[in-house]
Amino acid sequence: MPSRKFADGEVVMGRWPGSVLYYEVQVTSYDDVAHLYTVKYKDGTELALKESDIRSQSSFKQRKSQSSSSSPSRRSSSRSRSRSRSPGRPARGRRRSASQSREHKDDKKKTIQETSLALPVLLLFKPSENNTKRYNGEPESTEKNDTSCIILEQKLKPDLEVKRVLEQYSLRSRKDDKKKEEIYSEKKTFVAVKPIEKVPTKTKELEFGGRIGTFMMIFLLPATVLYLLLMCKQDDPSLLNFPPLPALESLWDGKAFGIFVLWFLLQALFYLLPIGKVVEGLPLSNGRRLQYRINGFYAFILTAAAVGVLLYFEFELHYLYDHFMQFAVAAAAFALALSIYLYVRSLKAPEEELAPGGNSGYFIYDFFIGHELNPRIGSFDLKYFCELRPGLIGWVVINLAMLLAEMKIHNLSVPSLSMILVNSFQLLYVVDALWNEEAVLTTMDITHDGFGFMLAFGDLVWVPFVYSLQAFYLVGHPTTITWPIAAAITVLNCVGYYIFRSANSQKNNFRRNPADPKLANLKFIPTATGKGLLVTGWWGFVRHPNYLGDIIMALAWSLPCGFNHILPYFYVIYFVCLLVHREARDEHHCKQKYGLAWERYCQRVPYRIFPYIY
After folding, report:
1. Where would I find the H helices in 544-606?
2. Is pLDDT larger for residue 423 or for residue 508?
3. Are residues 406 and 498 in the same domain?
4. N or C: which end of the chain has fewer CB within 10 A?
């Protein structure tokens, strides 16, 4: 095994990815498996570099001294050659007077050339200057309406044009031309730096309580779902009235498991249909972009048609309500089996396809978080499919089943107003997610988290069986609300939805095409990664306005259930805790990724989710 060359804490010169520029960095750690150094720039940005991209500071000083010492020798040799001129040459003074005007012009051209080349040379030996700061998240102006690369290119364009004209009449040697081309390439690199590509390394900072916390959550999550569903079945679902545990054999139903597997396969069939457009996701660590077929809304329409056919043939959909617990257990068993398969197949996955947060080397932690980032069977993306299809569409079908069960149990000709509100609000949320399916490609679940037990259980069990808790509660605990109260709750839900949708649209459109003329009014802070941090619109109001809209909608979904019990408000309480925790994760990752630019963004937008509160 090759020994490492640089020690932890050593200050060296690191090459900026995608360029030939070197900056002063500090070595923080070394990965023995990937043979990569983790280095930290002055602005706090951390990158993984190969040993070939790192040089000692002494080598730069030595190279600079050698270049300066070589110049006098060249000048002396040129003077010695000029003394032994041929007899046919005119005298030096007469020759100079004859060409004085031409040499004066040549001197002016040379001055222009040297001036045009001065910027990249300064960048090479003085990484702390203002131009370097632009790459480390320190723009000359904090807010911009256009990319700094375009502005800089316009500034350098006249110099480059003069340089090209002079090159046509240059009499320098090829060696000098080669050196000039290298400097010119540095200049081009400075104008447009390629995006930073990170090679996945071992996960060092463990989340969710590390190995012990994730081990406990593997058992705590299914137990929580079981507890909530048992509480809803009771006449008095108060917190102090703990439900009796059912017999284990009553929790398993082979028919329910078969129906769930059939449902999963039906959604997979809809996913594979060649309808809908195909788009590319965000670049991976190796620069590759995966393709995704956007047809979730079509799958929802086909599912609605299939449910309509079942109702036409008088299929009793409230069977879901009668065996709701058994369906939840079947979904949990399926999610566990899927998680085991995902972890086993991830052991053979290439290093570059592993998730940044699920590559710790600890079995329990990687099993929970997800070891592989984008597990696929051919073109079938398992994580992307489970993110929106079986659980999210299943949530709507379960709500419809609860509505029909309420009408049957209470002998109603029409559903209650509370049930209509809950179904309508949550149907709008699901349809919006499927209509804007492409936006999920920029979320943390797709770009950062692996596909393991956390997402498999969350997508297939938690979403359909916990998010439908309000509808399940209303079947056994009917609540009557007046029309004015219903109107007020509707307005609250619409406000939350407007904030949620408009904030997400701003973010997604800006990520896809920052140069879109429709976004010309948005200001942003440029970062070292080439991306921008919005500081106007909803993203200048709070750092996560989409979370704020989500929480307002969650409250509107719970209010139709009244205030007799806190159980239907579990969703909004859980959602606040979830989004606060996710915001903390986002904060940590963005601080590492964007460095000083993120600190400036936090100064510009001080509130995280709730304005003037948090």
Report:
1. 545-558, 570-594, 596-604
2. 423
3. no
4. N
